[in-house]
Amino acid sequence: MIRRLAVLLFLYGMCLSGLVAKENDVVVSFAGQQLTMQDIQPDASTLQAWQDDPTRKARLNIYRFSRASEFIKRQFIKDYAARNGLTASPAFVESFKLAFGGDSLTDDKLTRLAEFSALQFAVDRHLYERHGGRVIFDQSHPMMPIEAYFYAVRHYAEAGQLVIHDETMANMLWQSFARPNAITLQPDQINYSQPWWNTVAQ
What are the Cα distances from residue 18, in Å, to 21, 41, 73, 136, 167? Predict the structure, then answer.
């Protein structure tokens, strides 16, 4: 809870300057794929709910950043995997379904999530083997090689494959790799021989 609050306070401070762009303006370009301001807008009901909120501007920009960050992550995983010949292990796809299958997810959604998660694990392992560095625990990514992600994403930016057209959003992205309050896993806790969800399924 404390770590989450610290992150939100940091993002709030970063967002006060605002992300100013028209709806059809490109916000992020990644390996030929583009994300526009319209793509990261909340729906009408959410905007209405925030109408009289004094923190509306910051909340709106945090929402937009989270959508843009998710876009960058998914494009990075897919492109990095393709460039390095990485694929989702069928065994890990099935073990993910076994661990998280249930009434809350349709079969189609579960399959897509399982395939992406298994592909992300392949990328995680490849990144850690190549770069090493700090690995953190995150609720949605329990064994994230965050330092290796930073090096790889920075390489995309330096090569012009990642372009963020908003300065505030760019600063938020690079700062997000710091995670000073995240739990750092010790070397004996890092094991990429199998994905974390296999322990859930056992």
Answer: 10, 14, 22, 29, 10
Closest CA to 43 of 19, 22, 67, 26: 67
Q: How far is CA 85 from CA 31, 33, 79, 121, 133, in A?
A: 16, 20, 10, 14, 22
The 10s digit of each residue's pLDDT in 116-138 is: 999 999 999 999 999 999 999 98
Listing from the earlier edge strand, what are the strands of the sheet with 162-164?
33-36, 26-30, 162-164
Where are the chain's structural domains?
A: 26-36+70-201
Hey, is 35 helix, strand or coil?
A: strand
pLDDT tens-digit readout, 41-84: 998 898 888 888 888 888 888 899 999 999 999 999 999 999 99
- Three-state DSSP class for residue 103: coil
> How would you write 116-179 as a 3-class SS string?
HHHHHHHHHHHHHHHHCCCCEEECCEEEECHHHHHHHHHHHHHCCCEEECCHHHHHHHHHCCCC
β-bridge partners, 137: 183
pTM attached to this predicted model: 0.84
The two three-digit tokens of residue 129, written as one number: 């083997």
Hey, is 27 helix, strand or coil? strand
> For residues 186 and 181, what is the distance between their CA atoms, to the nearest angstrom?
15
